[in-house]
Amino acid sequence: MGGPAWRLLLLAISLAACGEQLGGGNISGTVRLGASIQSSSLEDKLTFPPRASRETIPPPLSWMPGEVLVKAPEGWPHRLPSRLRTGGLELRLIRALAVPGWALYGVSGLSPQALESLDMEALADRLEASPEVEVAHPNYLLQASKIPNDPGYPYQWHYPAINLPQAWDIEDGTSRRVVVAVIDSGALIRKRHPDLAPIWLQGYDFISDPRVAVDGDGRDPDPEDPVEASEDRGNLQGTGYHGAHVAGTVAASTNDGVGLAGVSWGAKVVPVRALGLGGGATGDIVEALLWAAGLEVPGAPPNPNPAQVINMSLGGKAPCTVASIYQDAIDRVNRQPQKPIIVVSAGNSQDNVANYSPASCRGVITVGATELRGF
């Protein structure tokens, strides 16, 4: 459970678990060394491939051709030499750097094609054998963090807030499929939203009261919200496609030039409908939780895709010590050999989370939020 895809999906807890107030948290990452920098100031020095399909573009350059950064030994009595020689090659000083002791050198006398073919790491290793050099390494090119091409991505301010672009450089969720159950209002399945259609797995509707379900019946295999429950904007108790919003945050189809971006580019979502008109009943929600984890629920078919992560962007003002059925259900899920990670919203009330369930229960990850200004 410790792979990169798991770590990426845990980023979703800082986003999806808190409904409309998204953001918060932090993640450290690395900057990948690699692709060529297409800056106008470098275009005369680098040869870039013509525009082509992704399949025909050659691997990017990893360093500036023929350039190496050199640090002189501490206490070296002379200035940095104007020339260095190794393996029959001559390197000339381009400039001393603002970092004390460091300078930039370039291989001289070779054609641009020959420079691009040089193994600069091997050359730097040979330079380090010289008494004039303490450290040497190629003049690496740094690649910008992975940014998807979805047109709505620039408006997703909460993703940079948790350093998600840097995290995508480490893992974007495509190396291994992770199943996320979203216990919420209904999905968008028949409506074929282009960002959501590819992510759905078989879900279930756990709302037992037809008045809450607003779909003419109780529990059934159809986890989609009816229009009446989702689009009645004049009724503040409507679901507002909240579950679809959360599912999209977790795993909307990403880097496809359409719509918005999801936290994971490869996760699949099991939609578990437990919130309808006016909210959701505790009895429905706890059974939805058990079913999402792959446990048996009387009257419901087995879940063919038990979740590895369960998201519950919901809550009510009662401590878990009072609404203790939540704790019992969570404990049962956590006793399973392959127990999923349960992520719960702290709520949007600017209040002590100890007053809310299931946020105050043991065995869950409870997530707060910020808003656009970072508060």
Q: How does this structure look, described?
A:
19% of the residues lie in helices and 16% in strands. With 375 residues, the chain is of the alpha/beta class. The strands form 2 sheets. It has a 6-stranded parallel beta sheet with strand order 7-8-6-9-10-11, sandwiched between helices. Strands 2-3-4-1-5 form a 5-stranded antiparallel beta sheet. α9 runs parallel beside α10 (324-334). The longest helix has 11 residues, at 282-292. The chain is elongated. The relative contact order is 0.16.
**Major beta sheet, specifics?**
6 strands, parallel
Number of strands: 11
Biggest sheet: strands side by side, in what order?
Answer: 7-8-6-9-10-11
- Reading the helices and strands in chain order gives HEEEEHHEHHEEHHHEHEHEE
Distance between the termini: 32 Å
Quaternary organisation: single chain
Report the C-alpha radius of gyration, rounded: 27 Å
**Helix coverage percent of residues?**
10-25%
- Give the CA-based shape: elongated
Q: Low-confidence spans: pLDDT under 50, at least 5 residues? A: 4-8, 10-60
**Average pLDDT value?**
78
Number of helix segments? 10
Percent strand:
15-25%
Q: Classify the secondary structure makeup into a structural class.
A: alpha/beta
